[in-house]
Every structure is written in C-alpha cells, then in structure tokens.
Amino acid sequence: MSYTLSGRLQSRLAAVALPFLVACVVAVVLRQWWPVELAGAMVGVGLALDLAYHHALPYQPGWAAVPLGLLELGLTMGLVRLLDVAAPLEPALWFFAGSWLLAQILAHAGFPLLRLSYAEDGGELGDAGAALLLAAPATVLVVLGTAAATLPPTVVLGAGVHRGPIVIDHSQNLVGEPGAVVEGGIVITADDVTVRDLAVVGGEYGIEVQEAENVLLEDVSISGATLDGVHARRSSLTIRRCEVRMSGRYTQGIDISFAFDLPLSKVTDCRVIGGQEGIVSHMAHVDFHENRVRNTTLRAIAVTEMSMGSVRENVVEDAVGVGIYCGDYSHCDVTENAVRDTRPDLSSSDRGRQGHAIVSHFGARAEVDDNVLERNASDLHAYSDGRIRVR
Amino acid sequence: VGADGSCAIVGGGLAGFIAFATLRHGGLDAGEIAVFDTDPDPVAAWRPRAEAIRQRRMRSESDGHCNPRSFPGLAPREMLREGTLRPLLETACNRYRPTVEVFLRHVEELRETCGWDQSVRQHRAVRVRAADRGFEIDGEGRFSHVLLAPGHPGLAVPQELASDPRTVHAYAPHDYAERVVVVGAGMAAATVWLNALADGSEVVSVRRRPPLRRPLNVPRPLFSRRGLAGFHAAGRVERAALLADLGEPSYPPGREWDEPLELAEREGRFRVAESVDGEAQIVCATGFRRGYDHDPLLRALVEEHGLETQGHWIVLAADATVPGLTDGTRTLAVSGAPAQWAYPAADTLVGMKYVARGFLRKVKACRTR
Q1: Which residues of B lie closer than 8 Å to A, measured between beta carbons?
Q2: Cys-Cys link to B339, which of B87, B155, B173, B320 (CB 3.0-4.6 A)?
Q3: pLDDT tens for residues A225-282?
Q4: CA-to-CA distance for B295 and B339, rounded, in angstroms?
C-alpha cells in the first residue's frame, strides 16, 4: 500500500487506540503507570518512524510489516529501558505483539471494510481520521495531566547527611542526589513508595517496610543497621540494585516476611555481605534472582516457613553452615545459582549446618536445576522430611 | 428508472459491472439503476480476449476483483476455499496472481447476488445528451447520474499491417504458424511469445523499444492518493506526457517470463527484429485504440457539449466526473480507459473501483435523492 503521511498517522493512531485504552485500564487495575508509559513509548516510536517511513517507503508491501514491526519493537524496548519504565519484559512483549497483530488486522481487513476507499486514500480515514489527529494531542495532554495529578510527589534529598528515621506515611518518591545519606533509617508505612539513590546508615532497621504494597527500593546502600538491612512485614516490595553490608552477630541483610497473601516480592541485582542471614523470607511469596550474597554466618539465602520462592541465578560465596536453604514446608525453585566455598559451622553440632550448598528441611520441597556447586563441604542435603528433586 | 435521482450506466463490461455493484453496496436498489449494453454478460468482451491469448493468470493482485469492498480480496477467499495459507503468503509478497478461472467464478457469483441482470437493458446507447437536471440517453429516458463505461474503442493494428492477410490481432481467436512475428512488447505480446513457443513455433519479436518490466500497469504509488496528488496537481501538458509514458507497453518481471524466452533464444527459436519480414503469420499484440475520438459516443459527447480535451483525453475532474456537466443535481462520470485523465490506472479493476466510489459519493450527495 502507498500511504500518504496523513494516512500513516491516522491509521497508526486508529490502530493503537484500543491498545492504549487497554493500557489505561490495566494501569488503573494495577495502580501502576508502566502500562501507559509502555503504550506511550510504542505510539511515540511508531509515529516518529512514520515520518521516516514516509520518505523511505513510497510503497509498502505486506511482508514489510514483519521487519518494520521488529524494528519498532527494538526501538520501543530501547526507549522503555532508556526512560527507565518499570515494565516487566514478558508482558511488554505480549502487549507489543498483540498491538502489532491488531494493527495488521485493521490495516488489511478492518479499515478497508469500514471505509471503501481506504487503500486509494493512502490509509486516510476521512473525517474520523482527521478527528483522531486532533484528538491525539488532547489525549496526550489528558494523560499527562492525570499523571501529574496522581503521580506521587518526589522529594529530593540533597548531598550530605540527613538525620533519620525518616517516616514515609503517604505515597511518594524519595530520591537522593549523589552523596545523600540518611542516618538512622527509613520507615515506610504507605503504598506506592519509591526510595532511590540513597545511602542509609545505622538504625535498628536500615529500611523498614510495614503493611505497604508497591514499594520500590532501588539503587540504595544500607550499612550499620543493628538488626536488619531491610525489614519488610505484611508488605509487597521490589528491591533492585542494592548493597547491604551487615556486621552484627544477629543481623539479617534483607528479611521479607508474613506476606503470603500479598503480591510477589522481588529482590534482584543486590549485593549482601555479612550478617547471620543474607536474604530471607518467612511465609511470603518471593523471587530472589541475580543477587550476590557472601560471608553469612547462618544461611546465605533462606526461603522458609511456608514460603513459596524462586531462587535463580544468584551467587553465594563463603557462607558458614548453609548456602541456600528451603525450610519448613516451603516450596522452592532453586535454579542456575552458583554456590561456592560453603563451610561447616564448627560451633554447631547440628548436622544440617555442615557446610551444605543447598538444604531442604522439615517438609520443604526444593526443585534444583543447573546449579554450579563448587568447593562446598557438602552439595545437597535434605532431612526431617525435606526433599530435594534434581531436575 | 428514468426519473430524478436515478442512475444509468452506459456499458455493461467490467467497469459498468463494478460501478453497479458499488452503487448497490451504497444502498441503491437494482430498480434505480439502468445498465445499457447489448450483452448482459459483464465479461462478454473480456473473456474472448483472455481466451485468445490463453491467459491463465490475471495481472492484477488480490484486490483485483469486482466487490465494492477491497477486503476480503481474492487471496483470502482462495485461502479459505483451498484451505492453504499459500495465497495469503503470496499476496504479502506481491506474488499472488489469481487465475482467470478464479476471477471469472468470482464475477459469476457477484453477478448472481447483486441483481445485475434485472437492471441490464439490452440496448446499445449511442448518444448521451445533457438535459435539465440530468442526461438523455438515446430515447431511453432521462437520468440524473450517468456513468459512461464504453470500454476500449476497438483493437489497435498498425496501419501498414492492417490490410496484410497474414495479420491477426492477439485478442482475436488464432492458432500459430510455424514461424510467427509478434508485434508489440506488452503483457499480451509476452503472453503470445510464450504461447507460440509452447506450440513449437519460431517467434520473431518486432518492437520499437525493449519492453518495460513493471509488476502492474503503473507504479504502485499512482494507485493511491499519495501518487495521485502530484498527478492531479500537474499541468495538462505534463499530465498528458506522463500518461503517454505510462501507456508504453510493459509486462511483469519474473522467471516465469524470462526462462522460457532465454531457453528459446538459446535454441534459436526466439529473436528480436526491427521489422516484419516474410513470416507466415503476424500477430499484432498492440493493444487497443486510444482516445475518446475513436469512440462514437464519447466523440459525440465532446463535440455536442464542447467538452475540454487534451490530446486523446477528455479533461476530467479528479473523481473522473466531467466538470462542465456535473453539479449538485446531476453527475456525468467516465470509467475504464477513458478515465485515465483522472486515474492513470483507470483501465484496471482497481481503477474502475476508484471511479465507481467517486460516482457513488456524488450520487449519495445529490440533493434530489
């Protein structure tokens, strides 16, 4: 088909109207902005490319939809990453694929059925198309206005030490400038909170999250806490790119507990050093992946007390007693981790603490697959009705 | 029929048939439309020509059909009928060419469902004259909206060969002699080359210049507003020159054409010559006469109403209506090859639909309806 520029834009806007609406609905349901941001990125890339297509493609054969679709997918995902849109990869790909398919169906069947002269008009949709061109900027303004009105406020902490504890009891973004340090911890008691680019020093808990959902801790470093680095109770949160350094005898790096009925919590790309337990869940639904945990004295990564957890692609080193632990009727998927140099706990006579890389204990079920276990005192250990199944 | 608001189509070939189907789709009853032609079969003129050149496949693609809506085209229909994705994949790559059989079956099906036969008046209209709020067609009545689809005004044969007893036109029934000269370089000529070679003949191709290789009659952008905007904006002289250029003979690229010719050339059974020699048979694949002046009805229309012309073409509006004879109460439009002034590919099925849709818009916008 030979599109006019106006025809390309009108067809594009008409084809994305439904996906955009769906994205808005999903955003409302999830109470997150990424569906709208993702749809916006897709539409923006598409419209920008339409300008380029217009000169490059006086005629566009049907097969070109596939390579052009892949190009648009690549640029859309690149833009999503560049803008740091928190869209999960798989839903984002499905959303794009569904939108692309719908656009093809509309371009080849829907629009020609609705408008006799669609092809000879170069993709233009008459008065409806012109109205779309006018409505699109208005829609963008409405969405941006809604975003501005509903997005949490952002509080920026400047460089230097800020005396804590800071209590966040309503939705907001707390963002630190380079060199910003909070001394004495942060307490989060509200949903939809983001803490980013901050160093937290001291406090019983570095960051405490109580009965809050949709919490994001990103690019934070925590040190000097006397109990837990991150202490989450009855909460659902994502922790991304963090560094937690613990030194006390009874400390834990990250503890997410008592949230089995809440959405999945995630810990990813974090470094946890020291402490009794590195990353632990009690009765929660968790996904721990791509973290590095070392120098723990009890267990490096623990999924216990009827938790359901995925432990993937983590690196565990120099743990005393146990590397990865699945305990107390929990169900664990332990895949593609590397566990090295786990040493026996010489102070304990407990046979379950004899330097095992992966342990399943007390009715727990651990599915293990493709893990690299090196220089551990023992690789796999199941006891007290705990089971390990190697896939 | 024959009152204010009624429609007439002069010419019951494919252009008229498509216009009729489009009007019916637009909500007109069959009783509101009169079609003037001596033969009620819409492919009565087209079919013998296709048979004469043993045409197996259409040059047009999936959207080369007579339905008012472009979707579903012939490819998805064939996909459903045959239960294979092949037609759809081929059309995505612009490689789908429906067979003549598929096309004729489609015409027959549409003819049965659209009420065509009850609208056809078996009468050859020879004169259309402007009247108050309409047009008089011979003595058949007055019509507010008239579409002229007279078809091609006869076969073109080079003057120097017209009286040669060896001459036969490609579109007339014929067999092949042992040694055949084929004059021309378009789709019909290429088809005749292959036919004659397949029959074991030796073929001499006589042509003025090497043939153009174009998938369709005109470049694809000229099928849509993208290319048409510039075409319509061009001055008359420039537009006429472009039409003359587009009228040069061409046939599609592809191995199915090249390989048999290359093989025959190597065997010494196909060669190109500048002029006709002493061959036993001369097949003129030289297409049709061009221009309104070869068509009695159009010529009379121009002369009686002083219509503007440029070269062989009647000057038409962008929607193929005749500007001086079209207003808020009446419409006179031209379809088929004579409408190339408005749409360079007007002699294709897509072009005929372009005109038909424009005509429908005029009819529906008419105050007397």
Answers
A1: 22, 25, 63, 68-72, 91-94, 219-221, 223-229, 350, 353-354, 357, 360
A2: B320
A3: 999 999 999 999 999 999 999 998 899 999 999 999 999 999 999 999 999 999 999 9
A4: 13
Cα dihedral B227/B228/B233/B237 (nearest 10): 90
Record: contact B221-A58, CB cut-off 8 A: yes
> Within a 13 Å sphere around the CA of A381, how many CA atoms are in the beta-carbon half?
21
B90 in Cβ contact with B96 (< 8 Å): yes
**End-to-end Cα separation, chain B, in angstroms:** 13
> Model confidence over B203-260: pLDDT tens digits?
999 998 888 998 887 898 999 999 999 999 999 999 999 999 998 889 989 999 999 9
Closest by CA to B13, choosing from B171, B154, B151, B153, is: B151
> How large is the ipTM?
0.85
**Please, which residues have CB within 8 angstroms of residue A78's CB and are 6 or more apart in sequence?**
none
Q: Is A368 helix (H, G, I), strand (E, B) or coil?
A: strand
d(CA B107, CA B99): 13
Letter string b/e over residues A131-142, b meaning 16 or more CB atoms within 10 A of that residue's CB: ebeeebeebeee
Question: What b/e readout covers A18-36, taking b as 16+ CB neighbours within 10 angstroms?
Answer: ebbebbbebbeeeeebbbb
Task: Tell me the pLDDT of chain B averaged across its residues.
Answer: 92
Q: Most confidently modeled of A27-41, B12-26, B69-83, B154-168?
A: B12-26
Q: What's the pLDDT score for residue B367? A: 57
Sorted by sequence, the CB contacts under 8 Å of residue A107 that are 6+ apart come out as A1, A11, A15, A65, A123
DSSP per-residue codes, A156-192: EEPSEEEES-EEE-SSEEEEEPTTEEEES-EEE-SSS
Higher pLDDT residue, B369 or A292? A292
How many angstroms separate the CA atoms of A348 and A91, rounded?
Answer: 47
Is residue B77 within 8 A of residue A109, CB to CB? The reply is no
Structure tokens at A234: 């009855």
Beta carbons of B328 and B362 less than 8 angstroms apart: no
Cβ neighbours of B255 (radius 10 Å)? 8
- At A308 the pLDDT is 97
Nearest CA to CA, how far is B223 from chain A (Å)?
Answer: 6
Chain B residues with CB under 8 Å of A108 CB are: 71
Q: How far is A33 from chain B (nearest CA, A)?
A: 37
What is the secondary structure of B284-301 as a DSSP string? Answer: E---B--SGGGSHHHHHH
Question: A165: cis peptide before it, omega within 30°?
Answer: yes
Record: contact A7-B227, CB cut-off 8 A:
no
Beta-ladder partners of A387? A365
The Cβ-side half-sphere exposure at A336, using a 13 Å CA radius, reads: 7
Q: Do B224 and A109 touch (CB under 8 A)?
A: no
Q: Which of A228-242, B60-74, B98-112 has the lowest mean pLDDT?
A: B60-74
Half-sphere exposure of residue A366: CA atoms within 13 angstroms, side-chain side: 29
Residue B300: how many other CB atoms lie within 10 Å = 15
Q: Which residues of A touch B (CB under 8 A)?
A: 1-4, 7, 58-59, 61-63, 108-109, 112-113, 116-122, 124
**For chain A, what percent of residues have pLDDT higher than 90?**
88
Using a pLDDT cut of 70, give the percent of chain B over it. Answer: 98
Q: What confidence tier does A139 reach under pLDDT thresholds 50, 70, 90?
A: confident
CB-based contacts of B125: which residues, under 8 Å, 6+ apart? B10, B11, B36, B137, B138, B140, B297
> Could you tell me what percentage of chain A is helix, strand and coil, using 3-state DSSP and rounding each to the nearest 5?
30, 40, 30
- Which chain A residues are within 8 Å of B61, Cβ to Cβ? none
User: In angstroms, rounded to a whole number, what is the distance separating the alpha carbons of residues A99 and A91?
Assistant: 12
